[in-house]
Amino acid sequence: IVSAFSDRTFIWVATPDLSQLKYVNNGYEKIFGRNEYELYCNPIGFIDHVHEDDKARVLKQFSQRPLKNWDIQYRIYDAKGEVKYLHDRGSLIYDDREMHSLILGTADDITKEKTQQQALMSAVTKLEHLSKTDSLTGLANRREIFSQLNDEISRMGRGQQTSTLVYIDLNKFKEINDKYGHKIGDKALVEFSNSMSGLLRESDRFGRIGGDEFVIMLYGTDENETAAFFDRIQREKFEVEVDGSNLVSIDFSVGWVQWNEGINSVQEWLDRADEVMYEKKQQGQVQSSTVQNIAVNNIRTNAV
Fold first, then answer.
1. Is 7 one of the catalytic residues?
2. pLDDT tens string 134-170
């Protein structure tokens, strides 16, 4: 019966002080790829083949005296240098006088299960990322940016420093699509996203909510600081390359609203910033860095 488990289970029996090996099945040779003779010389010699990141933990377990029952998982290197995962369990065996007489160890090769589990976890992580990410630009998608903004409102509702929400709309984006094609239009969206991302802090939030519309949440930033930020980036170039050499500028309008207690939801916050942006865009006005209660800045970067 024990031999039948040899393909995936390493079974051994030793004296209580681990000084003498009484039995080992073919599992040691099958899993470790090594001769069982080394265990007869040293019953815990298998620890020499434990992965370096796990070795201290395994050695500590088998160094206990008296040895106690164990249930641990660790990695080993087989004779070919390949990493395998083991689920190792041990029991103390007593004789009819309740004297500790032997130790029984069983180590299952769970490499296949671990590999499948890791593949599943990787797939779940990837799917989770894709569910939160805009497939074209790699920014947070509409659902994810709404979730992030909702968390931010909760944070500010506890009396912490307020943030400012910026609504961005690319100007005449349809003309880029019509003149150069949708491939260049998509490229423009990517170039704009990458350029703007490089100007933001790790604590800020940047997402695409659809088409050529984006939102930025400047963390812990008031309206005056937001105005100063957009004044600074007027020196930055937002452009896309077409025909292998020509550069076309990417113009955009922005409107921003600093959060206050009168704003009750993400949608309301977003709508207010959108309204301000749209109003100023229609008027064709450019706001200076002296900002009113709700500020808007219309940015244009000249083509090279």
1. no
2. 999 999 999 999 999 999 999 998 888 899 999 999 9
pTM over 0.90: no
- Catalytic residue (one of 212, 222, 231, 274): 212
Provide DSSP, the chain.
Answer: --GGGTTTEEEEEE-TTS--EEEE-THHHHHH-S-THHHHH-TTGGGGGB-HHHHHHHHHHHT-SS---EEEEEEEE-TTS-EEEEEEEEEEEE-TTS-EEEEEEEEEE-HHHHHHHHHHHHHHHHHHHHHHB-TTT-SB-HHHHHHHHHHHHHHHHTTPPP-EEEEEEETTHHHHHHHH-HHHHHHHHHHHHHHHHTTS-TTSEEEEEETTEEEEEETT--HHHHHHHHHHGGGS--EEEETTTEEEE--EEEEEEE--TT--SHHHHHHHHHHHHHHHHHHT----SS--SSEEEEE-----
Question: Tens digits of per-residue pLDDT, 48-86?
Answer: 999 999 999 999 999 988 888 999 999 999 999 999 999
